[in-house]
Amino acid sequence: MNSPAPSPDAGLRPIIEAREVDKRFGSFHALKKVSAVFYEGQVTAIVGPSGSGKSTFLRTLNRLETHDSGEIVIDGIVLNDDLKNLDAIRREVGMVFQSFNLFTHLTILRNITLAPMRVRKMERAAAEQKARTLLERVGLLSQADKYPVQLSGGQQQRVAIARALAMDPKVLLFDEPTSALDPEMVNEVLAVMRELAYSGITMLVVTHEMGFAREVADRIIFFDDGVILEDTTPEVFFTQAEHERARAFLSQVRHGF
Amino acid sequence: MNWATRHPGWAMFAAMAGLLAFLWGLAIPLAAAPEPIGPAAEQFADGARITVWLTLVAGSSGIVIGILAGVGKLSRFWPLRRICDAYVWLIRGTPLLLQILFVWLAAPSILPEDIVLSDFACAAIALALNVGAYNTECVRAGILAVPWGQVEAARALGLTPVQTFMDVVLPQSMRVALPALANNLASLVKDSSLAYAISVVELTMVGYRVQAESYQPIPVFVTTAVIYLILTTAFTTLTAALEAQLNTGQKR
Fold first, then answer.
1. Considering CB atoms only, which of A97, A102, A115 is closest to B158?
2. A31 with A69: CB under 8 angstroms?
3. For residue A17, pLDDT beyond 90
4. Burial of B183 (0-12, 13-18, 19+ CB in 10 A)
5. Which residues contact B167 (CB under 8 A, 6 or more apart)?
6. Terminal CA-to-CA distance of chain B, rounded, Å?
7. Measured between CB atoms, does B157 come within 8 Å of chain A?
8. Least buried of A54, A226, B79, B165, by fewest C-beta within 10 Å?
9. How far apart are CA B173 and CA B137, in angstroms?
10. Which residue ranges of chain B lie beneath pLDDT 50?
């Protein structure tokens, strides 16, 4: 796993390229010309203090936030106002949210089958078959006919992961997937994510779980004040971070792992 | 109501079957009633059917209008927003009776000559426009109550804006809007009586005619009122059951 990830000459294919991405919310400069390339199969943990821009950056990658300037290319497709491009990208990029965002009016099974049936025009029977397989993978097959509100937070997040996987994305974005969970539910979600990471899918994970980042990620990106301060391997980041700001951040969160 | 909320499917079925049975069986018990009700049993049954038909036609069109105008009011395209605002402002600010009279009397001079609207159609149009304006606000509130995260999740999964609206936002907004929409429908059952002003022979008109012939207002209007009560009860049961059905995702 822990190869020196950021090197582009390792024979890895770039799947996300962000060049000088800039974003402001009013007077707040959230992203300051952020550039980064992510490679196929790579698991990247994006860490940093609150308000540092890490979630905003993740959300620009499937245009839940629009960027003001710069360029984002996903699997060869330029992310811009062209709806065709956007739809193509969103089919390839799955997202898991901090607050799960399961469709509250649909059963667990329907939550997972909705997008494959609507977007990929899959037959109901095939979509349900696939949904059941995915539910089994996240250990929730027995909950298929329940509604989201009947599940615990950890279970809901595992369903959300299954829902994202149902579209066969090339990339999965995780926006603080365990931050809204009770402590005893964090591990069940991390276990699913760990299994995914080893399956070879490209993952970008905004997280505060340093133990998880260190164990599972190939690469750590440290955001501070709208810029990427560190972009390195977990070993380097956790033992000899270059910037004082990163070392201070680590000492703040050290109790977490 | 408890039984109805626990078995919404059955309650809806029962309310609908009950309503149909009532509308087509009403004349039988009424015919056995003493003067002046008995001889007018068929008239009462016809009137009740017209009232229900008017309510259903205007009510369902009104829901479509309410959804369209409710979405329009939230549109990013400002002329559409203004048009929907103006519509709601105009309808809510003028009396329903005036609206009914306007459609009835003004439509022939506005429409091309080969389109002739029946009295019933005029009443249905006016009532639909009226209830639609009130529905607009309910729908808008319902849509605003859907958390933004639901939209983001749907968009992130690749659903188009239209799919997101139809599959995620609209069903969830209905859960919030339905009690208010049901309220409007219950009002509509009664508001449809104003159609008597343009000679639609609905329930109130029947009552008015029967008492005019018999000079016995008390039994006639009591009968009319009881029929209205049974109709509104059926509609309320129906919508309460529908509400329970839509609430399934909220139950713990």
1. A115
2. no
3. yes
4. middle
5. A114, A118, B154, B159
6. 19
7. yes
8. B79
9. 12
10. 252
Residue of A nearest to B250 (CA): A149
A163 touches chain B (CB under 8 A): yes
| Number of residues that make up chain A | 257
Q: Do A147 and B175 touch (CB under 8 A)?
A: no
Q: What is the pTM of this model?
A: 0.82
pLDDT of residue A10: 58
Token output for A116: 């494959």
Distance from CA of A251 to the nearest CA of B (A): 33
Q: Which residues have C-beta within 8 Å of that of residue B176, sequence separation ≥ 6?
A: B141, B142, B145, B146
> Residue B68: CB partners within 8 Å, gap ≥ 6?
none
- Nearest by CB to A104, from B152, B167, B249: name it: B249
Q: Is the distance from CB of B10 to CB of B16 less than 8 angstroms?
A: no
Note the ipTM here.
Answer: 0.88
Q: Is A91 on the interface with B (CB under 8 A)?
A: yes
* Chain A positions in Cβ-Cβ contact with residue B172 (cut-off 8 Å): 103-105
DSSP 3-state of A161: helix
Give the B window 98-127 contacts with A, CB below 8 Å.
Answer: none
Burial class of residue A150, CB neighbours in 10 A (0-12, 13-18, 19+): middle
d(C-alpha B41, C-alpha B223), whole Å: 10
The model's pLDDT over B165-175, given as tens digits with 9 standing for 90+, comes to 999 999 999 88
Chain A residue closest in CA terms to B246: A105
Q: Which long-range contacts (CB under 8 A, 24 or more apart) does A3-9 make?
A: A3/A218, A3/A233, A4/A233, A5/A39, A5/A42, A5/A44, A5/A218, A5/A219, A5/A233, A6/A37, A6/A219, A6/A231, A6/A232, A8/A37, A8/A39
For residue B72, the SS3 value is helix
CA–CA–CA angle A159, A161, A166 (5° rounding): 95
Contact B152/A at CB under 8 A: yes
Tokens 């309910």, residue located = B138
DSSP bridge pairs for A220: A45, A232
Residues 6+ positions from A179 with CB-CB distance below 8 Å = A98, A207, A208
Q: How high is the pLDDT of residue B4?
A: 67
- Judged by CB atoms closer than 8 Å, whether chains meet at B152 and A102 is answered as no
When the pLDDT of each residue in chain A is averaged and rounded to a whole number, the result is 90
CB proximity under 8 Å: A 113-142 to B? 114-115, 118-119
> How many beta-carbon pairs under 8 angstroms link A with B?
73
- Burial class, B160, CB count within 10 angstroms (exposed 0-12 / middle 13-18 / buried 19+): middle
| Chain A touched by B14 (CB under 8 Å) | no
A101 interface with B at CB cutoff 8 Å: yes
